[in-house]
Design a protein that fits this description.
The complex is a heterotrimer of chains A (318), B (260) and C (362).
Chain A (H helix, E strand, L loop, with lengths): L1 H7 L1 H8 L1 H32 L6 H17 L4 H22 L9 H23 L17 E6 L2 E6 H23 L1 H11 L1 H6 L4 H26 L6 H15 L4 H26 L4 H15 L14
Antiparallel strand pairs in A: 1-2
Helix pairs in contact in A: 3-7, 3-8, 3-10, 3-11, 3-12, 4-5, 4-6, 4-10, 4-11, 5-10, 7-8, 7-10, 8-10, 11-12, 11-13, 12-13
Chain B lengths: L7 E12 L2 E12 L3 E5 L6 H9 L6 E6 L2 E2 L5 H6 L2 E4 L11 H7 L9 H6 L3 H19 L15 H14 L4 E5 L7 H17 L3 E5 L3 H7 L2 E6 L2 E6 L1 H6 L1 H8 L4
Parallel strand pairs in B: 3-8, 3-9, 6-7, 7-8
Antiparallel strand pairs in B: 1-2, 1-4, 4-5, 9-10
Helix pairs in contact in B: 3-6, 5-6
Chain C lengths: L12 H4 L6 H21 L6 H28 L7 H18 L5 H19 L9 H20 L12 E2 L3 E3 L2 E4 L5 H24 L1 H11 L1 H7 L3 H28 L1 E2 L6 H14 L4 H24 L5 H22 L3 H15 L5
Antiparallel strand pairs in C: 1-4, 2-3
Chain lengths: 318, 260, 362
Amino acid sequence: MDFLTGIFVTPFAEMIDMPDLFFQALWDGFVSGTLYGLIALGFVLIFKASGVFNFAQPILVVLAALALISFYKMGIPAWISVICVLIMFYGLAWLIERLILRKLVNTDGNILFMSTVALSFIIIGAAQWIFGGRPSSMIHKELGFPTGSLEWPMFGGGVYFELLDISAAVVAVLLIIALGLFFSRTKIGRGLRAVADDPQAALSVGISLNQIWVIVWFVAGVVALVTGIFWGARSDVSFALQIIGFKALPVLIIGGFTSVPGAIVGGLMIGLGEKIFEIYWGPLLGSGVEGWFAYFIALGFLLFKPQGLFGDKIIERV
Amino acid sequence: MVNETKKVMMEVKNINLRFGGVIAIKGVSFDIQEGEIRAIIGPNGAGKSSMLNVINGFYHPQEGEIWFNGEKRPSMEPYEVAKTGIARTFQNIALFKGMTTIENVMTGRQLQMNKNFFWQMLRYGPAIEEEVKHRKRCEEIIDFLEINNIRKTPVGSLPYGLQKRVELARALAMEPELLLLDEPMAGMNVEEKQDMSRFIVDVNEEFGTTIALIEHDMGVVMDLADRVVVLNYGELLADGTPKQIQADQAVIDAYLGVPH
Amino acid sequence: MYFRETGQFKSKYKEELAAFPIFEDKIGIAIAAIIAFILIPIFGLPGLSYEFTLSAVMIPVVIFTITTLGLNILLGFAGQISLGTAAFMGVGAYSCYKIMTIFPDLNALICVVLSGVVTAFVGTIFGLPSLRIKGFYLMVATLAAQFFLEWAFIRIPWLYNYNISGAIEVPYKEMFGIVLTGAKSEPLTRYFICLVFLVVLTWLASNVIRGRIGRSWMMIRDMDIAAELIGVRPLTAKLSAFAFSSFYIGISGALMVFFWLGAAEVESFDINHSFTYLFMVIIGGLGSITGSYFGAILVWVIPVILKEYGKSVFGIDAFIMENFTTILLGVVMLTILIVEPHGLARIWQIAKQKLRLWPFPY
């Protein structure tokens, strides 16, 4: 009986009782949500352009963060370090296209996926070797992002907004808009969509697959960098950051693997849902439910609406 | 070879099939008599494959009834339909590309094999006897269709015409009462068509299997079919013997054209 | 798989249906058996201490071959992708622990088999989503299983008997006067037990694969629509694949904890391990039993031996060797995917063919 009350009554009572806490949870969830959406975006981009589910995306986030910190520690000014990282990512994208993607052009999606898994192993091994395994702190202050927090009194209590979170949300939104415009307005963006739809057809109208892929992986790297900066600022930069990347999977299930707005909506749903679930139902089930909540929501979607909210419908013709 | 007593094996009544806003089949009714070769023809998109899919249990019509061997058939899943004795080949070959010819044909015996898990694990006694028995039968079918020399070849590396024959072998391995063939001659040259026609007739005459086939080659249809159903835009256009169909004005206008 | 020796004819179907109809294969198996059962126990491996050979190389590779067999059944033969392998090994390990503590007089080997049965049940349940989804989507569902089970291993204290450290420790078990598990047991005993399990399980798997049930799995893998038309009920085929595969994986998990490590922590069952097992299957060759052997051996043995040589011969830091082997694994995996996606099994087949004809190309 207590258990049932705990599920159906107490949480909602608490929400109404302490609206400031509820609002805080909403805000925190919202921020996580935008960052999840951002990581999911990295996946969507590559999937849209090459049909590959890039398992290495989470590790790219870690790599970006670690590289940025290292460049800075070598004495390079903060924003120049950012540019160095971008150059590094462009080189990496070029290498990946040359050595891997080119060789696997016509193969099955599953093989491509496994190759990104292999790639992630290589990057993890290399990154750990070069940068060491110890956590480091992100240089967001040096980049000029404000720290500290605002308190906004409401509902009799107060809600805290970390300035960093606000910056994160703003940058995420800007990036999403930029990417959206990139996809729909520019020539390259159109080429990307063509390749995603049908690589052979795209080739036949003269679109250079190789160039497209390099661009796409580079953009994924950019997204990884932004994600790395903000996630790294909230919690230290270490290889544990990968786990956050895996969270993108449920986001993609909910939003659809091929949809940019889907990544955002999915991200928000997971971010908000997780937070609310953890705070209000967590005590009942034991802490750490955040670890698998997202997956269970995804499971529900998988069983009833596998293409997600915005994805392309999966049709099997006999 | 039409059954003199004209016993009806399968009857579809008033089938309506829609996909969202698209009407695939509209109010189609016809029957298939035991032992006959029934052709289903019509222009592309007329709903022929969809009709076979309905009979197979892949598509479930919004309205209509299916009667099989005198009983009304409830809505069934494809594997249940297979159990009632209906087998099928596909327009785009649906062979198991990872297996050889003999393995593919053996899969057709799946329903006839039932020794349980325990015996399967030991692969002794009943399990192995069952395997041998069915293997023998499959080899007979392979002999019958003259594909012995490619028994051990992975089907993915076979030419198109032979793949179609293997698919037929697999369907025959199911020992069906009713065999549905979806464009069995598609993509074949003249010789291959002759061979395939011969096999189809053999299957019908020697095993007594009732056959329904979708086909575009009118020469084949005229030769093989006992009766023909003509579909157009999802509706039934005509139903009769090949001669009757050839003379039917509506059919000529919609599909056949005038010989020149 | 498709490799057929010319000049060897069988006059009875029964002979053709045997496990190793080709004479050369029989010899190969005999050699491998002699090495595994006799040579290594007596001589160990060159350059490595006997203790190390058994405890760090042979026992784990035998156990992981069982794991790889299990995963190969699910992924290679039935075409259902699963990223929860490590978590299911955990299920096997924890259930073995519970069975041993609840029934302390029960023979250790029976406990292991029973834990395989428990894992089969659990695997079947987590396999239910495969009835509605496939490919990537199924992969995500199995990831859910992986993370959920990892959480459960920590959060359900009943599993580790409310032990404060959260880890399980292996109790002392014996049979016919020989110590099987626990600190007093001999590596050699444990090695032979694992080896026997492997041989028996391989034999069973090979039988099932070649029979009706194995065929139904391969049908579902290749084209599930066609399989349905033939009368295969997807539910039975898929769930039986999950069950059978989980049985193997569960046993390997129990063996891993009780006959190798001696203790278990949740880290042993994490997502990185799941990927390692996936690599073993793919590098070895999907849908191939010998491939499972190759994959497990390559992915486990080479890194372990490299690390050991690196340390003892060249004095290289362990941290560096660890990262080096991770990178190496990724590179090998990529190479296999690019050059021969069917894995080592196929490479082996081709090599055998070429060797027989050498020095002629045809």
